[in-house]
């Protein structure tokens, strides 16, 4: 990969990062001075940060979907229980009687 030739004869996708790293390494007094360039080159090769970020985004999306499902299930249960009690809909108990019972 560091040779600069890609699969089809032209430059590889990471060749510019390799050149920056090589230039820094040649001019640096200590190899630790080129850690940023080395990180950029390795990220271009392996995409570790990109994969970690995509995984974090996917995990957050799954978490939000799970929370939404729980909320939907709770609201569905509440509406089902309200729909099952047809006492007020049928007019068996008058609203004024319910209010008197609630005040006592």
Automatic annotation (TrEMBL):
What does the record list as GO biological process? mitochondrial respiratory chain complex I assembly
How this chain sits in the membrane, per its record, is: Peripheral membrane protein
> What is the annotated localization of this protein?
Mitochondrion inner membrane; Mitochondrion intermembrane space
UniProt KW keywords? Coiled coil, Disulfide bond, Electron transport, Membrane, Mitochondrion, Mitochondrion inner membrane, Respiratory chain, Transport
Q: Which domain of life is it from?
A: Eukaryota
Pfam families on file = Ndufs5 (PF10200)
Listed transmembrane segments: none
Q: Does the keyword Membrane apply?
A: yes
Q: Which residues form a coiled coil?
A: 57-84
Known partners and oligomeric status: Mammalian complex I is composed of 45 different subunits. This is a component of the iron-sulfur (IP) fragment of the enzyme.
The protein, known as: NADH dehydrogenase [ubiquinone] iron-sulfur protein 5
Disulfide pairings? 14-44, 24-34
Task: Write out the similarity annotation.
Answer: Belongs to the complex I NDUFS5 subunit family.
| Major location category of this protein | mitochondrion
Give me the Gene Ontology terms describing cellular component.
mitochondrial inner membrane; mitochondrial intermembrane space
Q: What does this protein do?
A: Accessory subunit of the mitochondrial membrane respiratory chain NADH dehydrogenase (Complex I), that is believed not to be involved in catalysis. Complex I functions in the transfer of electrons from NADH to the respiratory chain. The immediate electron acceptor for the enzyme is believed to be ubiquinone.
